[in-house]
Each structure stands twice: as C-alpha cells, then as structure tokens.
Fold DUF6351 domain-containing protein.
Amino acid sequence: MTHWNPSFAGALAAMLVPVVLAGCGGAVQTPDRKLSLTVLSSKPHEVSGGDARIAVNAAPDAPGKMTFLLNGRPIDPPMVAAGTRMEGVVSGLADGANTLEVRYAADGGRGASAALVLTNHPLNGPIFSGPQQQPFVCRTQESGLGQPLVDNQDGVGHPVFDTVGGRPIGHSKSCAIKTQIHYFYFNGEGFKPFDAATDYATPPADLKTVTLHGASVPYVVRVEAGTINRFVYTIAMLAPVAQGQGAAPGFDSASWNRKLVYWLRGGVGLGHQQGTAIWFSNGLRGIERQIISRILAQGYAVLSSSGNEAGVHYNMRLAEETAMMSKERFIEAVGVPAFTIGIGGSGGAVQQYLFAQNRPGLLDAGIPVQSYPDMVTQTIPVADCPLLEQYFNGEVARDPASTWTSWSRRALIEGSNASDTVANPVTGKPGSTECINGWQGAVPTVLNPVFKDPRYELVAQNYGYPADVFAKVKWTHWNDLANIYGTDGDGHAPSPVDNVGVQYGLGALAQGQIGKDEFLRINACVGSWKEPSQFVMWESDSDPFDARNMQRSASCRDPGGVPSPRRMGDMAAMHAAYASGHVFTGQRLDIPMIDVRPYLEPSLNMHNARQAFSVRARLLDANHAAAKNQVIWFADEKADQSARALDALAVLDRYLSDGAAPAGFTDQCFDASGAVIASGPSSWDGVLNQRPKGACSAAFPIFASPRMVAGDSIKGDVFKCKLKPVAAAMGDGTYPDAARFNADDRQWLERIFPQGVCDYRAGDQGRPARW
C-alpha cells in the first residue's frame, strides 16, 4: 500500500470528478454533494485483475467514519486518509460488473452514500483487443522468470514440464507467472543482480552511488516482474535502502519523484509470441541502458511491457490495451503519477503517436525517437522498393552500360537517398540505396503468408511444441490482425497494397532527369505484387528482391508488348486500418511530443528523416492547431543520441510541471558535438513551405519516396489514389511537355494505365469519408 504524500494532494485532487460515476450498464445514482467515489487506476468499465485504486472525497462537515460495500457485502480496504480524502486499493472484484459503495451515517440526521460500478476483466485479457492468438509461445523461461503456470489440461498453448523429471504436466494459454521481485545494482556500465538479503549490508565493490535529495545513496533498483495480458511487464524504481521484511517489500516512495516513464521498444513483429522482459534475458540494450540508467537515477519510475515492443507484435489495439492495463497495475502498486512520459524508438515511437491519437490520457507527453507516423502507411512506399530495384537490376543485366549502373541515380525514381560508395548487402560491393540497405527483406515479412522467421521453429522445438504447430499460420501483418482485417475462404487476410495508376518517376520526367522512353519503360515493367494466395517462399540468396512473387510481363519493354499488371488493394482493408486506429491521421495530438532523431540518411538507414515531417504534414492538414504540440529535433549521427533524449525528457518534465511550453520546446538541430546549429520556428523552413531553407533544413537535407516522386505529398498516407483518364492528364499539365508524347507513346501509356493515372490532388479512394 502506497502511503499518502500530502505534497501530492493537489495533483491528485485535480483528477477527481465531484459526481457519482457508473460503469458500463450501471445506473448513475443521484450525486451526493458531500461524497464522491472515483476510480484512479483505470476507467470504471476497464478494470482488470480484480483490484482498483479508488479515492473517496468527502465534504469538510462529513463524519469521518465510513463503511465500504462490494456487491452488497462489507469490505475493509486499506485506505489512507489526507484530510477529507481517502485513497486505497479495493481487491476481490469478480469478473464482470461490480458495485462498490461507500456510506456514512450522520448522527441524528440523514446519512449519505456514493456508488460506482466497476467492470472487471481477467488480468490475462483481453478487454477490447479481440480474440487472443494461438499458437502463442510463452518466453518467461528465456527471461529467467521460470515456466508459465499451468492453466489447462486440454493441450492448448505452451507445454509446461516438471522441473525435476521433465515430464509434461499441462499447458499454459495465458503465459502467466506469479509476480516476482528482483533487485539490480548499477556498476557504471550496466545493471547486475543484487541480493537484497545480503548486499545492502555488504555492498558489491563496483556498486555506484546516485545523488538523491542531496545525499549520495547506493544505486540499487527494485524491479517488479509479472504478466499482464499475456505479456511480461516490469516496474523499476530506485531502492537505495532495504525495505522492510519478507520476500516482496513495497516500493520506496521516498525515492520516487512522482513521475513515470513508459518505455516502449521498436521493431515490427508478427505476433504468436510473448517476447522477453527488458531487465532479463538479454537485458537492457545499448543506448537503452544509457538512457534508462540516467532516468532512474533522477527518481523516475520506469514501466515497460513486452507487449509494447513492436518487434513482438504490431497490433496497435493490443499494444494500447497492454499499456493501459500495465499502467493500471503501476497505479495500484505504487500510486498515481503526476504525469506519464513515453519514450521509445522506431516502433516504440510509433506507439506514442498512435496512443496519443487513440487513447487520450494514457500518456501526458512523448519522446518518439526515429519515428514513423505509423507502420501501415509505411508499407505503401516500402512495397515499391523491390519492384523498382528488380527493374533497375534487370536493365543493368540487359545492358551493363545502362545509366542505372549508377546507384546514386536511382534516387531520381525512388526518392530516398542512394550512394555510389556505401556498401551494398546484396552485392557485397560499394553502391546501394535506402531501398536495399534500409528495407531489403521487409516486404516478405509483411506480405508473404508462407515466409516465417526460422527462429519460430527453433523456439517451438526447444519448448516441446508439436512439429506442425505453426502449419496453419499465415505470416502477414494483415493475417496477424485477422480479427480487424478479416479473411477469405482460404484464410488469407486482404491486403491494402495498391499501385494502380502510380506513375513512377513522374517528377524526374518533369525535371528532365529522365526521358519519356525511360519513363514509359519503368511504368510498363515495374509490375506489382501477387495476391497473398499466390505467394511462394522467398529465396533470398537467388532472388534477393522476391521477383517470383511479383506480377511481371516478359514483353513489357516493347511498346507493342504487354505491360506488367498493377495490383488493386482491398478497399475494406484500407478502411479497417483507419477504423482500428492503425493509421496516424493527424486529427488528434493533444500532448506535447519531441520527435528526436539522429540524421541517418548518409548510411541509407530505414529511419529516414522524412518521417518527422510526414507526421507534421498530417497534423497541419487535419488539425492545424495540434501541429504546435510536435517539435522536431535532429542531431548529427555522431552526436550523443542518449543526451538528446534526456534533454527532451527535461524539457517535457518542465512543460508538464509548469503547465506551459518552456523555451526548449521548439524545433532545433544539433551538430556532432551536441551544439545547437539552429533553433526556432524557421529552423526547418523549406521542407513543408516554400520559404528559403532554414539552417536545419540546409544542414540535414530531406529526401523523398517513390510515391512522392510519382506525385504524392510528404504525408505519405494515400493507400489508393483517385484516378483520371490518360487523355485528361495529357491536357491538364500532368506532363509539363505533353507534346513530347507522340501517338504511339500515348497508346503505350493507355495500355500501361487502362484505368487511368493517379490524381493525387483529388484525394485518396482508400480513406473513409469520416476520416
């Protein structure tokens, strides 16, 4: 039970609602102005795990003695009082609706009461994310947290074995473990296990100290680990002194600065596994260790969950639900934080933007590092990359003197950066593109239902699963979210990937960088991806760009031949991506965000600089006022990136503490030493406006994408462009010098685009009307 801190009363009291609340299906009682009851740890209809932190507010003249009833039966929750306010955790909630009531009886007069309906859900979930996946590999053992608990004898889920004899004793479909407490100490480089029973008295020789409240104390961290929603969560806080007796002493509230950091990890995964806890297994990774060690040293609590690692799964509804439930556990175990700041890179950054859009109040601020607006719309240009690289390589194979032997020239069509000197992982020689170095192999892991990570088979074998456990799984992002996208009769989920009408290289043609013959050849031969049911296994060594899964025509180069077909994306899948909150639309960003990124364009990294401005462009287009809540920081690749993230944390802490944006909450960029190159609203001029380049824009050039070269905007959110006839395009300025196209050229263009060409000014066919 967390003790009440009077200095924190104001922040908590501001959260209270002076009326009686009701959950889903519960009747709202007549409010009593002398008494109110509020749940602090979650929304009333989204309680999980059988307990909830609640607060009772009473008028100054209300009697002190109160009684509590849960579903009509008296209970005695451990409440801590602060004046006329009481707070504590109520346990023993049954699944479903529960009525919590508080009463007092006034001497010689009418008593008062307040009630609240709490709808409780199992700690293993789900609440709103939909049916849970099976098969689903439990990985608590890899985290050093032991095997999951047996919850069925029906053969469903993860095999569990007797630890002595090794015989099967049951299965676990929930991957649950008992809550555990572990301690670690910091030695200046990383965290090592700490024995709380002996090491406080005889500290390890390499134990470092941290300054807390002006005093130097041992840098020891208490970590609570458990499972929520089938994923492993951890809560980490400073524990410089031994806390009480027993196996599970409480958190040291005196060491907590009353602020919470939610740590989110990156990647793009296809589910069917639990992931591992950040404090265990491989531990904290690289820069993650540098940042978290310095965050904890300042007194922040750090909350994380393997369900908020996008490399474990990329179901944002599930990620949102897991974060909500994990934060609920934190509030119940520790207390209500003054505010919660998200930090995470890549997929961990995407989660912050989507949480801010889909679940207001979950985070109060965010530091998205190397972010994208979302990963679903990112598949639009990424799916173009292998198509284009396959075309270029075919041209070079046909003619070694082709202009496409110049790797840097491919940027004219692909938009993203290319280099004649950066090492190419496919050829092993100098010269490559972001499409290769950044995105090689990404498409099979998203679109190919028969391509699976071979590590799944190894893990399943090691854990004693049947050999065919994954036989029915279709390994695409869309199938991974089948409850959102649906499936056809063969079990394949529809895909929104579409390139009908896309005129690759249109911008290069307009600038005179390629001729009309090359423009026509590219678009006749680029082709498209097959339907999911037609995919075969990707053979990466012999077929690096997965051409076997492309729709191509052998006679495409011939003006009289058959152009390679284009693929029409599924409209229902596009609508589902919006409806499920997997697309960042820019319509909502009510919290301050500092988009931090190293400038990685020279190394052709997938985390390209354009993405920060894609977010801003969506904000400016959908909700201009919300754009003020996002600022963009770039730093040279050689700069200390952990320092930038920590600086951003300090700025956001000040912002939330003071209730107003500080001077540091502004666009800026930094050189390799960390010195500010430029700061202020004009720093990035020239990227999203027509003004001369600002100092940051000049220092860190922004590249494009294949779709931008084809006419799309930097927003990058058009799944399916609206179309116009080729004849109309010939007369409306689509081609700056349309007279260059003779009658044969126009006929070829008509055959390439029988349905018409993209008219990006007319909008997106795949975007539902209400978005």
Summary: The chain is about 25% helix and 20% strand. Residues 609-702 form one domain. The CA atoms of residues 35 and 58 lie 5 Å apart.
